[in-house]
Amino acid sequence: MKKGNFCIDGKTCSIFEESLISYKFKITNREDPIYNLKSLKNKIEIKNMVNAHIEDGVALTKFLYWIKNIKINNLTEKKIERKLENFRKSRKNYLYPSFDTIAGSGPNGAIIHYRSDKFSNRKLRKNDLLLLDSGGQYKWGTTDVTRTVCFSNVSNKVKDIFTRVLKGHIAVAITDINKERNGHNIDKIARKSLNSIGLDYRHGTGHGVGAFLNVHEGPQGISNNNYVQLKEGMVLSNEPGFYKKNEFGIRIENLVFIKKVKSKLLFENLTMAPIDTDLINFKMLNKTEKNYLFKYHFDVYNNISPFLNKNEKKWLAKLI
After folding, report:
1. Closest of 23, 36, 29 to residue 6, by C-alpha
2. Domain identity same for 17 and 129
3. Residue 24 falls inside a structural domain
4. Torsion of CA 193, 290, 154, 116, to 10 degrees
5. What range does the domain containing 219 cover?
6. How far is the C-alpha of 148 from the C-alpha of 318, rounded, in Å?
7. Confidence band of 1 (pLDDT split at 50, 70, 90)
8. pTM tops 0.85, yes or no
9. Which of 72, 129, 163, 285 has a CB 3.0–4.6 Å from the CB of 289, allowing a cystine?
Protein backbone atom coordinates (compact mmCIF):
# COMPACT_ATOMS: atom_id res chain seq x y z
CA MET A 1 0.00 0.00 0.00
CA LYS A 2 1.30 3.43 -0.96
CA LYS A 3 1.61 5.86 1.95
CA GLY A 4 1.77 9.60 1.37
CA ASN A 5 2.33 11.92 -1.55
CA PHE A 6 5.65 12.70 -3.21
CA CYS A 7 6.86 15.53 -5.47
CA ILE A 8 9.55 14.88 -8.07
CA ASP A 9 11.21 17.13 -10.63
CA GLY A 10 10.28 15.74 -14.03
CA LYS A 11 13.20 17.56 -15.63
CA THR A 12 15.90 15.91 -13.52
CA CYS A 13 14.49 12.79 -11.84
CA SER A 14 15.53 9.60 -13.65
CA ILE A 15 13.05 6.88 -14.63
CA PHE A 16 14.84 4.50 -12.27
CA GLU A 17 14.52 6.85 -9.29
CA GLU A 18 10.90 7.56 -10.18
CA SER A 19 10.11 3.82 -10.16
CA LEU A 20 11.62 3.43 -6.68
CA ILE A 21 9.65 6.38 -5.33
CA SER A 22 6.37 5.35 -6.96
CA TYR A 23 6.64 1.90 -5.41
CA LYS A 24 5.84 3.35 -1.97
CA PHE A 25 4.48 6.84 -2.64
CA LYS A 26 1.92 8.49 -4.87
CA ILE A 27 3.61 11.03 -7.16
CA THR A 28 1.38 14.11 -7.18
CA ASN A 29 3.59 16.80 -8.71
CA ARG A 30 6.28 16.76 -11.37
CA GLU A 31 7.72 20.22 -10.92
CA ASP A 32 10.07 21.23 -8.12
CA PRO A 33 8.54 24.41 -6.58
CA ILE A 34 12.02 25.70 -5.76
CA TYR A 35 12.74 25.78 -9.51
CA ASN A 36 10.21 28.61 -9.91
CA LEU A 37 10.95 30.40 -6.65
CA LYS A 38 14.70 30.75 -7.28
CA SER A 39 14.06 32.28 -10.72
CA LEU A 40 12.58 35.33 -8.98
CA LYS A 41 15.57 37.32 -7.76
CA ASN A 42 15.02 39.62 -4.79
CA LYS A 43 16.18 43.25 -4.63
CA ILE A 44 19.50 42.36 -3.00
CA GLU A 45 20.25 39.69 -5.62
CA ILE A 46 19.42 42.13 -8.44
CA LYS A 47 21.59 44.83 -6.86
CA ASN A 48 24.49 42.39 -6.60
CA MET A 49 24.00 41.23 -10.20
CA VAL A 50 24.16 44.87 -11.32
CA ASN A 51 27.47 45.31 -9.44
CA ALA A 52 28.88 42.10 -10.90
CA HIS A 53 28.07 43.26 -14.41
CA ILE A 54 29.77 46.61 -13.88
CA GLU A 55 32.91 44.72 -12.76
CA ASP A 56 32.62 42.44 -15.78
CA GLY A 57 31.89 45.35 -18.10
CA VAL A 58 35.13 47.04 -17.07
CA ALA A 59 37.13 43.91 -17.86
CA LEU A 60 35.40 43.27 -21.18
CA THR A 61 35.58 46.90 -22.31
CA LYS A 62 39.30 47.04 -21.56
CA PHE A 63 39.70 43.85 -23.57
CA LEU A 64 37.64 45.21 -26.50
CA TYR A 65 39.70 48.41 -26.55
CA TRP A 66 42.88 46.33 -26.53
CA ILE A 67 41.89 43.99 -29.36
CA LYS A 68 40.45 46.78 -31.53
CA ASN A 69 43.63 48.83 -31.25
CA ILE A 70 46.50 46.35 -31.66
CA LYS A 71 48.07 44.57 -34.60
CA ILE A 72 46.45 41.15 -34.59
CA ASN A 73 49.48 39.33 -36.06
CA ASN A 74 50.02 35.92 -34.41
CA LEU A 75 46.89 36.33 -32.26
CA THR A 76 45.18 32.93 -31.92
CA GLU A 77 41.85 31.94 -30.39
CA LYS A 78 43.60 30.45 -27.37
CA LYS A 79 45.64 33.62 -26.84
CA ILE A 80 42.42 35.64 -27.03
CA GLU A 81 40.79 33.43 -24.38
CA ARG A 82 43.77 33.83 -22.04
CA LYS A 83 43.96 37.59 -22.56
CA LEU A 84 40.28 38.08 -21.71
CA GLU A 85 40.68 35.86 -18.65
CA ASN A 86 43.61 38.03 -17.50
CA PHE A 87 41.48 41.18 -17.80
CA ARG A 88 38.79 39.53 -15.67
CA LYS A 89 41.35 38.33 -13.12
CA SER A 90 42.43 41.95 -12.65
CA ARG A 91 39.04 42.68 -11.06
CA LYS A 92 39.33 41.98 -7.34
CA ASN A 93 35.87 40.41 -7.00
CA TYR A 94 36.27 37.99 -9.93
CA LEU A 95 36.47 34.32 -8.98
CA TYR A 96 36.40 32.13 -12.12
CA PRO A 97 34.67 31.72 -15.53
CA SER A 98 30.94 30.96 -15.49
CA PHE A 99 31.55 28.67 -18.51
CA ASP A 100 34.30 27.89 -21.02
CA THR A 101 34.97 30.91 -23.25
CA ILE A 102 33.99 30.67 -26.91
CA ALA A 103 36.41 32.61 -29.12
CA GLY A 104 35.39 31.72 -32.66
CA SER A 105 37.28 33.51 -35.44
CA GLY A 106 36.14 33.52 -39.07
CA PRO A 107 34.47 30.19 -39.96
CA ASN A 108 34.80 28.91 -36.39
CA GLY A 109 32.39 31.64 -35.29
CA ALA A 110 29.67 29.91 -37.32
CA ILE A 111 29.85 26.87 -34.99
CA ILE A 112 27.26 27.72 -32.32
CA HIS A 113 28.81 25.72 -29.45
CA TYR A 114 32.42 26.04 -30.61
CA ARG A 115 35.36 25.29 -28.32
CA SER A 116 38.90 25.84 -29.55
CA ASP A 117 41.41 23.02 -29.13
CA LYS A 118 44.95 22.31 -30.36
CA PHE A 119 43.56 21.25 -33.74
CA SER A 120 40.96 23.98 -34.37
CA ASN A 121 42.86 26.88 -32.75
CA ARG A 122 43.35 29.26 -35.68
CA LYS A 123 45.09 32.57 -36.12
CA LEU A 124 42.89 35.64 -36.21
CA ARG A 125 43.01 37.33 -39.63
CA LYS A 126 42.31 40.96 -40.42
CA ASN A 127 39.21 40.17 -42.48
CA ASP A 128 37.71 37.81 -39.86
CA LEU A 129 34.79 38.44 -37.57
CA LEU A 130 35.49 37.34 -34.00
CA LEU A 131 32.57 35.94 -32.01
CA LEU A 132 33.41 36.06 -28.31
CA ASP A 133 30.98 34.44 -25.84
CA SER A 134 32.19 34.49 -22.23
CA GLY A 135 31.22 35.10 -18.64
CA GLY A 136 32.42 35.22 -15.08
CA GLN A 137 31.41 34.25 -11.57
CA TYR A 138 31.91 37.21 -9.26
CA LYS A 139 31.38 37.40 -5.53
CA TRP A 140 28.00 38.97 -6.25
CA GLY A 141 26.70 37.16 -9.28
CA THR A 142 26.96 35.57 -12.71
CA THR A 143 27.66 37.14 -16.12
CA ASP A 144 27.25 35.91 -19.69
CA VAL A 145 27.94 38.17 -22.66
CA THR A 146 28.62 37.80 -26.38
CA ARG A 147 30.16 40.40 -28.64
CA THR A 148 31.02 40.18 -32.33
CA VAL A 149 34.02 42.24 -33.41
CA CYS A 150 35.57 43.21 -36.75
CA PHE A 151 39.11 44.40 -37.56
CA SER A 152 38.71 45.86 -41.06
CA ASN A 153 36.01 47.28 -43.29
CA VAL A 154 33.44 44.53 -43.77
CA SER A 155 31.15 44.02 -46.74
CA ASN A 156 27.74 45.70 -46.89
CA LYS A 157 26.18 42.21 -46.80
CA VAL A 158 27.80 41.38 -43.44
CA LYS A 159 26.94 44.82 -42.05
CA ASP A 160 23.31 44.42 -43.07
CA ILE A 161 23.06 41.00 -41.42
CA PHE A 162 24.73 42.24 -38.23
CA THR A 163 22.30 45.17 -38.18
CA ARG A 164 19.32 42.83 -38.53
CA VAL A 165 20.62 40.82 -35.56
CA LEU A 166 20.98 44.10 -33.66
CA LYS A 167 17.42 45.11 -34.57
CA GLY A 168 16.21 41.81 -33.11
CA HIS A 169 18.32 42.37 -29.98
CA ILE A 170 16.85 45.85 -29.51
CA ALA A 171 13.31 44.60 -30.19
CA VAL A 172 13.69 42.17 -27.28
CA ALA A 173 15.21 44.83 -25.00
CA ILE A 174 12.28 47.24 -25.48
CA THR A 175 9.52 44.61 -25.40
CA ASP A 176 6.25 45.35 -23.63
CA ILE A 177 6.29 42.28 -21.36
CA ASN A 178 2.72 42.95 -20.16
CA LYS A 179 1.58 42.46 -23.73
CA GLU A 180 3.87 39.62 -24.90
CA ARG A 181 3.91 37.81 -21.52
CA ASN A 182 6.23 34.90 -22.39
CA GLY A 183 9.39 33.89 -24.23
CA HIS A 184 7.46 32.18 -27.04
CA ASN A 185 5.99 35.51 -28.17
CA ILE A 186 9.20 37.51 -27.67
CA ASP A 187 11.24 34.96 -29.66
CA LYS A 188 9.15 35.78 -32.74
CA ILE A 189 9.88 39.49 -32.32
CA ALA A 190 13.63 38.81 -32.08
CA ARG A 191 13.65 36.95 -35.42
CA LYS A 192 11.38 39.31 -37.36
CA SER A 193 14.07 41.36 -39.15
CA LEU A 194 16.11 38.29 -40.15
CA ASN A 195 13.00 36.32 -41.13
CA SER A 196 11.87 39.14 -43.42
CA ILE A 197 14.73 38.24 -45.81
CA GLY A 198 14.57 34.47 -45.24
CA LEU A 199 17.29 34.22 -42.56
CA ASP A 200 17.15 32.67 -39.08
CA TYR A 201 19.26 31.10 -36.31
CA ARG A 202 19.17 27.61 -34.83
CA HIS A 203 18.96 28.36 -31.10
CA GLY A 204 16.68 30.06 -28.64
CA THR A 205 16.90 33.82 -28.19
CA GLY A 206 17.45 33.65 -24.45
CA HIS A 207 17.80 31.50 -21.34
CA GLY A 208 17.32 32.10 -17.65
CA VAL A 209 20.40 32.87 -15.55
CA GLY A 210 21.15 32.16 -11.89
CA ALA A 211 22.65 34.57 -9.35
CA PHE A 212 26.01 32.93 -8.61
CA LEU A 213 24.43 29.68 -9.77
CA ASN A 214 24.12 28.01 -13.17
CA VAL A 215 24.59 30.30 -16.12
CA HIS A 216 21.70 28.38 -17.74
CA GLU A 217 18.73 28.23 -15.40
CA GLY A 218 14.98 27.83 -15.88
CA PRO A 219 12.14 27.74 -16.06
CA GLN A 220 11.98 31.04 -17.96
CA GLY A 221 13.49 31.50 -21.39
CA ILE A 222 13.01 33.18 -24.76
CA SER A 223 12.36 30.46 -27.30
CA ASN A 224 9.63 29.06 -29.50
CA ASN A 225 8.62 26.39 -26.98
CA ASN A 226 8.81 28.39 -23.73
CA TYR A 227 5.41 29.57 -22.47
CA VAL A 228 6.46 30.35 -18.87
CA GLN A 229 4.99 33.66 -17.79
CA LEU A 230 7.69 36.28 -17.31
CA LYS A 231 7.71 37.95 -13.90
CA GLU A 232 9.47 40.71 -11.99
CA GLY A 233 12.92 39.64 -10.80
CA MET A 234 13.67 37.10 -13.50
CA VAL A 235 17.07 37.31 -15.24
CA LEU A 236 17.42 36.24 -18.88
CA SER A 237 19.84 36.49 -21.79
CA ASN A 238 18.97 38.38 -24.97
CA GLU A 239 21.07 36.82 -27.74
CA PRO A 240 19.83 36.65 -31.32
CA GLY A 241 22.43 35.70 -33.93
CA PHE A 242 23.20 34.51 -37.44
CA TYR A 243 25.67 31.91 -38.67
CA LYS A 244 27.00 31.46 -42.21
CA LYS A 245 28.61 28.02 -42.39
CA ASN A 246 32.37 28.07 -43.14
CA GLU A 247 32.37 31.89 -43.21
CA PHE A 248 31.33 33.78 -40.04
CA GLY A 249 29.12 33.93 -36.97
CA ILE A 250 27.28 36.87 -35.43
CA ARG A 251 25.70 37.06 -31.98
CA ILE A 252 24.89 39.98 -29.67
CA GLU A 253 24.15 38.95 -26.09
CA ASN A 254 23.26 40.96 -23.02
CA LEU A 255 21.78 39.78 -19.75
CA VAL A 256 18.62 41.59 -18.66
CA PHE A 257 16.40 41.53 -15.60
CA ILE A 258 12.68 42.21 -15.40
CA LYS A 259 11.69 45.24 -13.36
CA LYS A 260 8.29 46.70 -12.59
CA VAL A 261 7.64 50.42 -13.18
CA LYS A 262 4.20 51.17 -11.74
CA SER A 263 2.21 48.36 -13.37
CA LYS A 264 4.48 47.83 -16.39
CA LEU A 265 7.03 45.02 -16.67
CA LEU A 266 10.19 46.02 -18.55
CA PHE A 267 13.60 44.57 -19.38
CA GLU A 268 16.57 46.40 -17.88
CA ASN A 269 20.10 45.72 -19.15
CA LEU A 270 22.60 44.20 -16.77
CA THR A 271 25.47 43.82 -19.28
CA MET A 272 27.67 46.91 -19.56
CA ALA A 273 29.92 46.49 -22.60
CA PRO A 274 29.96 48.34 -25.94
CA ILE A 275 28.60 46.92 -29.19
CA ASP A 276 30.94 47.18 -32.20
CA THR A 277 29.52 50.14 -34.15
CA ASP A 278 31.91 49.42 -37.05
CA LEU A 279 29.54 46.57 -37.95
CA ILE A 280 26.33 48.62 -37.98
CA ASN A 281 24.52 49.99 -41.04
CA PHE A 282 22.91 52.95 -39.30
CA LYS A 283 20.66 53.64 -42.30
CA MET A 284 18.76 50.47 -41.42
CA LEU A 285 17.97 51.63 -37.87
CA ASN A 286 14.84 53.62 -37.13
CA LYS A 287 14.71 56.50 -34.66
CA THR A 288 13.68 54.29 -31.72
CA GLU A 289 16.56 51.88 -32.38
CA LYS A 290 19.09 54.69 -32.72
CA ASN A 291 17.87 56.23 -29.48
CA TYR A 292 18.15 52.88 -27.72
CA LEU A 293 21.74 52.38 -28.92
CA PHE A 294 22.70 55.92 -27.86
CA LYS A 295 21.18 55.44 -24.41
CA TYR A 296 22.76 52.01 -23.99
CA HIS A 297 26.28 53.26 -24.78
CA PHE A 298 25.66 56.34 -22.62
CA ASP A 299 24.74 54.05 -19.69
CA VAL A 300 27.82 51.89 -20.33
CA TYR A 301 30.05 54.98 -20.29
CA ASN A 302 28.49 56.36 -17.10
CA ASN A 303 28.86 53.06 -15.27
CA ILE A 304 32.35 51.98 -16.23
CA SER A 305 34.31 55.05 -17.38
CA PRO A 306 35.52 55.81 -13.80
CA PHE A 307 37.52 52.55 -13.99
CA LEU A 308 39.09 53.17 -17.44
CA ASN A 309 42.29 54.95 -18.40
CA LYS A 310 42.31 58.09 -20.56
CA ASN A 311 42.64 56.30 -23.92
CA GLU A 312 39.97 53.73 -23.07
CA LYS A 313 37.56 56.49 -22.02
CA LYS A 314 38.18 58.44 -25.22
CA TRP A 315 37.56 55.34 -27.36
CA LEU A 316 34.37 54.45 -25.50
CA ALA A 317 33.03 58.01 -25.67
CA LYS A 318 33.24 57.94 -29.49
CA LEU A 319 30.63 55.16 -29.53
CA ILE A 320 27.97 57.36 -27.96
Report:
1. 29
2. no
3. yes
4. -70
5. 41-317
6. 18
7. low
8. yes
9. 285
